[in-house]
Design brief:
By secondary structure, the chain is α/β, with parallel strands linked by helices. Helix content is 31%, strand content 15%. It is built from eleven helices and twelve strands. The strands form two sheets. Strands 3-4-7-8-9-10-11-12 form an eight-stranded mixed beta sheet. Strand 8 (154-158), helix 5 and strand 9 form a beta-alpha-beta unit. Helix 2 packs parallel to helix 4 (140-149), helix 4 (140-149) runs parallel beside helix 5 (167-173) and helix 8 (235-247) crosses helix 11 (295-312). The chain is globular and about 50 Å long. 43% of the residues are buried. Mean pLDDT is 87; it is low at 3-19 and 317-342.
């Protein structure tokens, strides 16, 4: 496994590497929820990452306390990042989890720096910060505390119901800064969920998260992602999903069609060949020009979802935080945005 000189950019020079060989401890735990999973505990050298300028992201800074994800979503775009460690982007991504155990203290130090201007920080944009590992390592309470103490705006995107453990700290954070919570629910089809997102809580439980945050005064948006071509895009499937999202009290719904980047593409297509071989040819044609579905298809899905959202009384995703609360006036602080992913 390659640890030396590892950064978010595999070509990064050694002086900005995230951690080195002497900072890694590997552990396994013989408990049912972690059986078959290996954790690589690292002491990171940095935790606040700048989003590349060419990215489509509506935010500039992210915090990612984990690499790899036990949610095991077969389509996860972040799979490629495991190849920087010489780890497998398939099963290795699902079971070899890098844990940045010093993330809260690093973040607190970063926020206290005179050079930091209090920009919005997005979390859950690479791998889920509320995956199962968080139940053991409990990095997010310290991260939320640091952001709250510095009144630094932030947002979280998750498929994990474990975020409810931190409901009270998040409510307190929303009293001093701007907090955006988004939950990812691409479909409510139970069979599709069990096969493409095997390590995640059910869509219904995720929508309970939306409902609970709304009941506590924090509006929660839903990233309807991914819409899976030929498996989750029938009109009745889209209607049922948007209806369930509306009933949960979501403040917005933002559809996103499946995209297949290198690393994710190979793993997803292998899964498709096992479970839906008749669709392989259709996918090869649809994604023949790259990682994204054709523009006409994306526009069709977006139009259908927005029409359904209007019918059920919710609007399309807006580039704003889910909840706005009074904060001390800081004219130089950038306006934060609600998460939309890729």
């Amino acid at each position: 496994m390659r640890w030396d000189n590892l950064g978010d950019d595999p070509a990064a020079p050694a002086d900005i590497a995230l951690f080195g060989t002497d900072a890694v401890t590997t552990r396994t735990f013989d408990t049912p929820e972690f059986r078959g999973i290996t954790f690589h505990e690292v002491r990171a050298r940095s935790i606040v990452n700048r989003v590349p300028g060419a990215s489509r992201m509506p935010f500039e800074w992210t915090v990612n306390p984990y690499r790899g994800c036990t949610h095991a979503c077969v389509y996860c775009f972040a799979r490629k990042t495991h190849s920087y460690l010489d780890l497998d982007t398939g099963l290795g991504f699902d079971s070899q989890i890098v844990v940045k155990i010093n993330a809260p203290e690093l973040l607190r130090r970063h926020l206290a720096s005179r050079r930091w201007q209090g920009a919005h920080i997005a979390m859950g944009t690479n791998v889920d910060c509320y995956q199962r590992a968080e139940g053991r390592y409990r990095l997010m309470p310290g991260i939320i505390s640091a952001l709250s103490d510095h009144a630094n705006p932030f947002s979280i995107l998750t498929k994990g119901t474990l975020i409810l453990r931190d409901l009270d700290p998040l409510v307190r954070a929303a009293e001093v800064t701007e907090v955006g919570i988004s939950v990812s629910v691409g479909f409510t089809d139970q069979e599709l969920w069990r096969t493409v997102e095997p390590g995640t809580p059910s869509p219904q439980r995720r929508l309970d998260v939306v409902r609970t945050f709304g009941e506590h005064g924090i509006g929660c948006g839903v990233l309807m992602a991914p819409v899976v071509p030929f498996l989750g895009d029938r009109p009745e499937q889209l209607r049922e999903t948007v209806r369930a999202i509306a009933e949960a009290g979501a403040t917005s719904v933002t559809p996103l069609v499946l995209h297949l980047r290198p690393g994710a593409r190979e793993w997803f297509m292998a899964w498709l060949g096992r479970h839906h071989p008749r669709l392989v040819g259709r996918y090869e044609r649809m994604y023949g020009d790259g990682a994204y579905a054709p523009t006409w298809y994306q526009r069709r899905i977006t139009r259908q979802v927005h029409e359904l959202a209007a019918e059920f009384g919710i609007g399309p995703g807006r580039r704003e935080t889910a909840r706005r609360t009074p904060v001390a006036e800081e004219p130089t602080r950038p306006e934060p945005t609600q998460l939309t992913l890729l």
